[in-house]
Amino acid sequence: MRHHPPHTGRAALWIAAWPILAVFVLSNAATPLYGLWQREIGFSTGTLTVVFACYIAGLLGSLLFAGALSDRIGRKHVLLPALALAALASVLFAFADSVPELAAARLLTGVTVGATVSAGMAAVADVAGPARKAQGSLLASTAMVLGAGLGPLLAGAVSETLPGPTSAVFVIELVLLTLAFAVVARLPLPTRTSPTGPRLRLPSVPAASHGRLAAGIAVFAPGITATSFVLSLGPTLLGELLGATSRTAAGAMAFAMFAAATGVQFAVRGLSVRRILITGALATVASMAALAIAVGTSSAAALVLAALLAGGGQGLGQLGGLTLLATNVPGERLAGANAALNGGGYLLAGSLPVAAGYLSAAVGLTAGATVFAAVLAGLALLGLLVIGKGATAGSPRGAGRPVDRGQPEAAGVGR
User: Fold this and answer.
1) N or C: which end of the chain has fewer CB within 10 A?
2) Per-position b or e across 2-34, b if 16+ CB within 10 A of its CB
3) 282 within 8 A of 251, measured Cβ to Cβ
């Protein structure tokens, strides 16, 4: 039997979101370190994107079962083992001296992230309760992008200031994960949310929400693919095109990208979900235009602008998609719905940057990045066609409001 936790304040929601932040710090902590590993181990740009894609493979595999499993047996029973795998990934990263070790660490990180974006985000919604689902969605989404930005910033700075450039980063991450484990263990969550549901169900939403899921994926997928490109090949672009080899610089650019993704979600919280999604798609198109300019003119300013706009595109697509699902999908299906949204996004994010990496190795980084930018901009523009009245029918002004009638009215996300 499902029960709702008592009313909680914003501080309690931030605490509930801490495990999401800790896991996403790990998700991108390796970004500024790839250049170091490339020199020490010796592997190509194509191999680098494959290592990055191992993360996507683990994430997509996890999304196939983590959401439904969380809905059936409870959030804690999925999150606690996931955090243990995150700790193992941190240990592998700390001592990695071969490509297989890096690939294994990235794979385990992906598995952990898949469990976190489905069960962890649903756990925040559980703690928020039915009256504050939209605020819970905002804080969960913010924790995700903030952690994703803090990871490379932390790694870049620590690796250039402390001895043991890779091991020190992941020792700090182990501390963050230990705190996350303690938070999950104490969260007031139901042990079972849907004990009579299927044991294994592919990520999905009820039929009435198919259009809303499609609208979320149409914006979130190009946005997160843009940020994935910056994470995987951004340091290479900085080094080969702009001559910037500092790991701190690479980490700072990634942090700025996700800081933009964080800030924009608070900035647009008064807009309708439809407007949020449209703005997100346009931000991704503008990001790809800036990327093409950056590689064509070797402009550092244009590359930073591309990263900031990419963060905005991901953040807006993520917020719009999560809000549509949280305010329309029943709680016992919410983790699976979150998994479907993220699965659709990461499927593109895992395939297109890898293709761009191998294309760049064959025709040059400038040409490869330009083709990537053109393809992704086209996909983002196609996404605008999906965001119609049918996808967000009934959506009132304010992302902090429910979309379907019959849902309890949610508190504004900024309150």
Assistant:
1) N
2) eeeeeebeeebbebbbbbbbbbbbbbbbbbbbb
3) no
- CA 25, chain centre distance (Å): 11
pTM score of the predicted model = 0.73
For the chain, count helices (H), then strands (E): 14, 0
Q: If we measure between CA atoms, which residue out of 178, 154, 176 comes closest to residue 166?
A: 154
- Give the span between the Cα atoms of 135 and 269, in whole angstroms: 10
Angle at 249 between CA 301 and CA 264, to 5 degrees: 60
pLDDT at residue 21 in the model: 93
Compute the distance between CA of residue 339 and CA of residue 324 in angstroms, rounded to an integer. Answer: 14
At position 362, the amino acid (one-letter code) is A
3-state secondary structure of 95: helix
Question: What are the 10-residue block averages of pLDDT along the chain, 415 residues in total?
Answer: 50 85 92 82 77 84 83 87 96 92 94 89 81 76 85 87 86 95 86 56 75 91 92 74 69 86 87 92 97 89 93 93 83 77 86 83 87 96 80 45 36 29
- Alpha-carbon torsion, ordered 403, 405, 406, 412, to 10 deg: 40
Residue that the structure tokens 């951004």 belong to: 234
Tokens of 85: 């795998």
Q: What is the largest CA-CA distance in the chain?
A: 60
| Alpha helical stretches, state H, 268-299 | 273-297
pLDDT at 283: 97
Q: Which two tokens stand for residue 68?
A: 């439904």
Nearest to 159 by CA among 148, 169, 172: 169
Report how far residue 139's alpha carbon sits from residue 23's, in angstroms, rounded to the nearest whole number.
15
* Listed residue (202, 193, 213) closest to 123, CA to CA: 193
